[in-house]
């Protein structure tokens, strides 16, 4: 078996995802400055969430969860993987075109399902209009996700990881052009969505073609492989539905409070930075690696890959989680507080950031644990666990709303994340050695926690001692940059000093394929 270089894959995907997230911050800073937390901003955010909801449901969720393990094993065994991908693409196109037609026709009801609080004001008409423009994005991005899965299974990560950058570049360009020519910002953002989808699909299609995968859609038919794909995808689709219900619950709660959808969205962007960089990198790289090792019977290599993914995840999320907790308000103020985004908006957003920060390690650990199931083509068990997590989220988000308002949505999301991790961890105990963290992981995790605590104490002390530095117009950018640099030096310096990380391990992993690197 030609191994996927795990750490190199993490760094490739993580680096491009970091670039996308940085551009995403630029995008959100511009949206905040142009639109604040007003009705146009909230209408666009709901409209954009609709194709994204179904994208996660069909493409990155159910479809790719089922597709990647089958494709990876066919690729490993030389069993006409390209033919399978063509059949899958033909079936996916058929489903997505039908879905798009129905969704555009039913857009007013979809908007109400996402945000019933919009019904009595102007946000409803705006969200319906923007949603109809943006929804075709699902076709382009879902086909792009399939091609990305093909590339990732073969160990080609760069193009698929770079594609999201095009989305944020398109958004930024749309706002700059709209401002220059006097166009309304809301419709410009809505039209940017499908345009970005075409650009992303083009990028990964060309990359797949150059990598030797000439994937064009085949006529849909119920071949044995497609029946197997559907059989595995249905539980994953149901599980994806549960995840989306969790998101719907949060948005429904938030829609009852003016400005809350925007506050939670900006908070979501902040914790999504480390979650995206680390969680997406691990999910993208680990699933095909474990699938191919399972096919090859490589238990030791599978355990190594699983343990290094867990170690990598915690190293790069525990520290950011503590930072989001102790410095939420300065971070939000520096990034978003300008134009129509007020200090009151910053305070409201910061509370949500701190709560999401507490769940950050759980959200990433799910990306480490789920491939243990998906690589074995087991999507039913995670679905059952997702149902339990959904129950936790609904009870907390709805039950606490009368007492803590929109923050109940963030609390519900965080606790549901930890409930999911607990179930995935306990359920994996029956999978044997390949699903158990090794001794190196168990030695290093306590040291990572100590390193994060040292960093957190220092960051809190700086924020407490110099609060004005993070609000002064000419100084706050430099103050935040300095805080980030000091925090990173404290975190990684402590980690190296006490043996929580050794960069020699990563250099060795980059040089060799040994043990799943």
Polypeptide structure, described:
By secondary structure, this protein is an all-alpha fold. 82% of the residues lie in helices and 0% in strands. It is built from 18 helices and no strands. It has helices at 6-35, 39-77, 81-105, 107-114, 123-134, 137-153, 158-181, 185-210, 224-255, 260-296, 299-326, 328-336, 343-374, 380-404, 407-427, 439-465, 476-497, 503-511. The radius of gyration is 22 Å and the shape is globular.
At a glance:
The protein contains 18 helices and no strands.
Q: Mean pLDDT, rounded to whole units?
A: 84
Intertermini distance: 13 Å
Overall geometric form: globular
User: What is the number of E strands?
Assistant: 0
Portion in beta strands: under 5%
Q: Evaluate the radius of gyration.
A: 22 Å
Number of H/I helices: 18
In terms of structural class, how would the helical and strand content be classed?
Answer: mainly alpha
Low-confidence runs of at least 5 consecutive residues: 508-517
Strand count, sense and closure of the main sheet?
none
Helix content: over 70%
Order of helices and strands: HHHHHHHHHHHHHHHHHH
Write a concise keyword list for the protein shown above:
single chain, 517 residues, mainly alpha, 18 helices, 82% helix, 0% strand, globular, disordered C terminus
Q: How do the helices and strands line up, and which of them pair or pack?
A:
Elements: H1 6-35, H2 39-77, H3 81-105, H4 107-114, H5 123-134, H6 137-153, H7 158-181, H8 185-210, H9 224-255, H10 260-296, H11 299-326, H12 328-336, H13 343-374, H14 380-404, H15 407-427, H16 439-465, H17 476-497, H18 503-511
Helix pairs in contact: 1-7, 1-10, 2-3, 2-5, 2-6, 2-8, 2-9, 2-10, 3-6, 4-5, 5-8, 6-8, 7-8, 9-14, 9-15, 10-11, 10-13, 11-13, 11-16, 12-13, 13-15, 14-15, 16-17
